[in-house]
Amino acid sequence: MHQKSQNADRGAPPQSAATIDEDTVSTTDGQAIPGIAAPRPVWQRFVPLGLLVAALIAFFAFDLDTYFTFEMLSEHRQMLMGFVADNAVLASAVFFVVYAVAIAGSIPVGLLLSLAAGFLFGVVWAALLVVTAATVGATVIFLAARTALRGVVERRAGGWIKRLEGGFRDSAFSYLLTLRLIPIVPFWLVNLVPALLGVPLVTFVLATFIGIIPGTIVFVSVGNGLGATLDQGGTPDLSIIFDPPILLPLIGLAVLALLPAVYKRVRQRRQ
Prior knowledge:
Number of strands: 2
Helix content: over 70%
Largest sheet: 2 strands, antiparallel
Strand content: under 5%
Number of helices: 14
Structural class: mainly alpha
Number of domains: 2
Shape: globular
Strand order of the largest sheet: 1-2
Radius of gyration: 26 Å
Order of helices and strands: HEEHHHHHHHHHHHHH
């Protein structure tokens, strides 16, 4: 009897044995295992991206786009200039937050805000504000998209997507820098695609920060002379970015940025 009882005890699971499923990590007696957190529900991964999408929808649903026009800037420019003159630090902080939120939510007001920054803050300070805020906003949507969608892409990716992912990730900095230097691909799209292709966060941040500096300087410089344009009742010539004296140097920088990726690809094929 004693031996039978021992055998039965061996077959029974210990009371402190761990049971792990998708919703909880705990012992059989209901106590959580220290240092091990239960997996979060899947829907929680979509909350950050959902909030950004909601911000974009709300922007148009409440007609906030009517406040981001050259007419509104012209009408309130004296008030804005006075506020900046009296509250330089606060004005810079408010602008930074507004710009970062606009970029994170893919709200199409970045160009107008860049011009307004040059008009209100001067070229140097405006460029620093815009580049930093744009990088922060781009990083927010990059992380939100990676958290929500990266796992889906990995599970459903076909062979060609895997090859694209591998090729892009091998020279991610060069590709991203090129896309940032030449504003052909929409800014919001360049924020999303690298998140789905597994680009490292540091690579994304550095390529974004460095790559948007030249274009930002161009637009804040145009904005710096916006007062005279508004006095004449006109709007700034935004096609200036495509003028040869400006576009050709940007293309030259983009080519230089792309050279390491081209060299790496040629070397791989030769091997």
